[in-house]
Amino acid sequence: MSSDDSEQFGFDTRAIHAGQRPEPTSGARAVPIFQTASYVFEDSEAAAAYFNLQEYGNTYSRIMNPTVAAFEERVANLEGAAGGVAFASGLAAQAAVFATIFEPGDHLVVSSALYGGTITQVKHLTRKLSIELTFVDPDDLEAWRGAIKDNTKALFAETIGNPAGNVLDIAAVAEIAHDRDTPLIVDNTFATPSLCRPIEWGADIVVNSATKFIGGHGTSIGGVVVESGVFDWSNGRFPVVADPSPAYHGLAFHETFGVYGLLMKLRAETLRDLGACLSPFNAFLFLQGLETLSLRMDRHVENALATATWLSHRSDVERVTYPGLDESVYRPLVERYLPRGAGAVYSFDLPGGRQAGGRFIEALDLWSHLANVGDAKSLVLHPASTTHRQLSDEELVRAGIGPGTIRLSVGLEDIEDLLRDLEQGLEAVGREGARA
Amino acid sequence: MTARRYQDPDVIRKVLHEARTIAVVGLSPNELRASNFVGFYLRRHGYHVIPVNPRADEVLGERSYPRLADIPEPVDIVNVFRAPDAVPEIAQEAFEIGAKMLWLQFGVISPEGAEIAERGGLNVVMDRCLKVEHARWLGRMHWLGFNTHRVTSRRASAV
């Protein structure tokens, strides 16, 4: 084995180094921010070769950028993928995957316990693009199997469901998908590659919202798609990927680029046409986050488990959904897929419903009331009135959200301070209840 | 199943540095075929690319030969874009013309062909793309977000 083969390096070393070599001109040790829209060609032959994809070269930062590429390769390396393509947001990354592998008349099967923004996205994007959509209970393997039809082109789920904490049986769902020559797409945002690498369990495409734990600082919006390179896009079911492309002068991406075919198409066609590129500066900030990913995830998990345990012992709290708790129904799946911890986002219910939820959040001083997760700062949200507001009551129930459900994203602060603030929030709810 | 023994990075890097002449068996004149992409790329990076294709007279501006045995000069790498069942015969010919390496592209998996070549003293790479490996070790694969599987703090040289 070669001394610089990344396979012999541990996760933390790769989180710091993969995707970057000190560049030849300046020797800069940090990844430079290539804040440029475009790139000067060496000569006309080089320009033509870049646009024809005959040579790896930079043309325009909507399609590729060296700072963004360092981020893409680092995430791909950490996820065990063939490569990655970054996007302006996690939702843009998902939309790009759908736009690349779906055609009108195809069918998508998704978990019903997803981030509200994703539910809204798949529901309305598929309708507008004439793609059929089926929601299934992610815990029900027979439901996944039964939902697949001849025109099904992908299954989609989250490693850890938002916000109800369903843990996906990745290997089982991947096998169900592969039995029907269909890829499994997993949103790994809540686990990050530090806690789970879905490709190792059979997932074909993994999407991450980098805005969350990957960045870890809540400063930047971004997303990234990685692909294993294993799925056979030439199996006859994906002419939109395998056939000569009318969007790239007849190029057959999978045949020409092999394991890199889908990624090349995702970049050279979908990113080119959707235009939702990640900015070099945001990529730089995400790279800073990745350097400390597993250190931060360990602390996030520690604080999440401590708060969830504390809440689960309170009589004024119902149903703490943290899958890392011993009593969680997902415990066996956590042991298999998330041995380092079940993430740091979960929910609990207040018996007083919507009103108690609002009172609790307003009483908190340290936890920030906002719509985001995966920040160093601890965050709190009432999904029914915010992130999942566009969902019907029935969809809320399917997503595991009640009127009094509170979602927490547990940050890196001192645990005593987090618990003290939760306690005074719960006491405020209790006082209100006593007055009523 | 492809054995890692035919994908040794040390063997790959050595041959990328030392080879000059590459015979591409199955090099298509169609600019949209993978073999044409690879031939174009290798020529751009200074290798002497010799097409071996009985159905073409000329590819990428170079004279095409029907068989390896027809090539009138020494060949370092025989790079194969053919179905696996054609490989044993190509491996035998590669040995007979004194080539140093048999390189089988993505999906061209032939343990029998590999054995023939190895018995003749050739190095073998299987189920790997010559263009991708060049771009990984010497080129610019990292510019498009692909996983080069490399970790190093040594300063890169200009490409």
Structural description of this entry:
The complex is a heterodimer of chains A (436) and B (159). Chain A has 436 residues and is of the alpha/beta class. In chain A, 40% of the residues lie in helices and 12% in strands. In chain A, the strands form 2 sheets. A 7-stranded mixed beta sheet of chain A has the order 1-7-6-5-4-2-3, with helices on both faces. Chain A has a 4-stranded mixed beta sheet with strand order 8-11-10-9. In chain A, strand 5, helix 8 and strand 6 form a beta-alpha-beta unit. In chain A, helix 1 packs antiparallel against helix 3 and helix 3 packs parallel to helix 12. The longest helix of chain A is centred in the C-terminal third of the chain and has 21 residues. Chain A is globular. Chain B is α/β, with parallel strands linked by helices and 159 residues long. In chain B, strand 1, helix 2 and strand 2 form a beta-alpha-beta unit. In chain B, the strands form 2 sheets. Chain B has a 5-stranded parallel beta sheet with strand order 2-1-5-6-7, with helices on both faces. In chain B, strands 3-4 form a two-stranded antiparallel ribbon. The model of chain B has no long low-confidence stretch (mean pLDDT 94). Chain B has one domain: NAD(P)-binding Rossmann-like Domain (Rossmann fold, 3-Layer(aba) Sandwich), CATH 3.40.50.720. The relative contact order of chain B is 0.18. Chains A and B meet through helix 1, helix 3, strand 1, helix 10 and helix 11 of A and helix 1 and helix 2 of B.
